[in-house]
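agent> fetching stored inputs for the magnesium ion docking request
agent> found them:
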Amino acid sequence: MKINAIELRRIAMPLRAPFRTSFGVETARDIVLVRVVTPEGEGWGECVAMSEPLYSSEYVDAALDVLKRFLIPALPEKVDARAAKRAMKPFKGHRMAKAALETAVLDAQLRVSGESFGSFLGASRDRVPCGVSVGIMDSIPELLESVSEFVEEGYVRIKLKIEPGWDLAPVRAVRERFGDDLLLQVDANAAYTLADARQLAKLDDFDLLLIEQPLADDDLVQHAALAKQLKTPVCLDESIESVEHAAAAITLGAASIINIKPGRVGGYLEAKAIHDLCVAHGVPVWCGGMLETGLGRAANVALAALPGFVLPGDTSASRRYFATDITTPFELADGHLDVPTGPGLGIDPIQDILDSVTTSSEWIKF
Ligand code: SMG
Ligand code: MG
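agent> prediction call returned; pasting tokens
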């Protein structure tokens, strides 16, 4: 496939409500969309980097810069997703930027060949069960109100964001109010240290599905030590940026469950490789989320339909974050989202909505 031009379009999407984690509060999404134009068709990729390097070292301005300066110029004349991944490999890091470009190339390639993301990746289901991630709140009553709305909407699993000072009490309150049958898990976004092991072990009483990324991203050995002190399974998110990291985490006993986010690991090809490795080792995986628009969500839902994704993902409906999505909104039905079946992502941006949220656009011509 030959590329004629690539558009780097930056959009600003207000969130319906602030989303607080242990590292900060998000009130809007600042997103780079990559649009690959070929003679036969177009493809889209969404960069999941945040405005500031707080979740990981990546951030939006850096993603734009590395795309323009290094990643796009490195693409070979004839390209598909695999060739794009190979061409970008020499550049260290910047996995979210790489994932966006690789996804746009893959989408274009699949739209031309008429195959869906789900079929290309190996999806084995036509819909996926959905969980929702619930931010840190100012009070327990506010949290219970929010969780109750999500449960009523049909979400099949609740994830509570935690941090020191907001862990046992919210988990206990949600367990007491919604009962033992609620699938419940927590995510610390690296807010603890191994010295907190005894506090974290108190969460064992609440029958959680997992505790996600309790310690720092580069603390694999400490996660292995922590896992020995907890009954709650340890799941890694930020620590896993490649299939090699996943292999190391499994070998060390640092994680018994892995959260797969295609942006964090450099794209859907790497995400699929991590899935395959985990299946081979009997390690359950689930699909993470980065507050994606409908474009990123479409690809995530396709990935979440692979057989190793045995736990509900952070693949919530569009309205969880956005009053107006840039695509036809994803809507929950019986706690599930349908896997798109059309070619490529199977969904398109709605031009006037896209234009109304666009803050800048730049074309790179080939
Ligand atoms: O898309 O629903 C979503 C976000 C889910 O909690 C979520 N993501 O660490 O897993 C995580 C966070 C990262 C983004 S927080 C701003
Ligand atoms: Mg996480």
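agent> quick read of the result: Residues 19, 21, 26, 55, 133, 187, 189, 237, 288-291, 314, 316 surround N-succinyl methionine (ligand 1) (CB under 6 Å).
agent> awaiting further instructions
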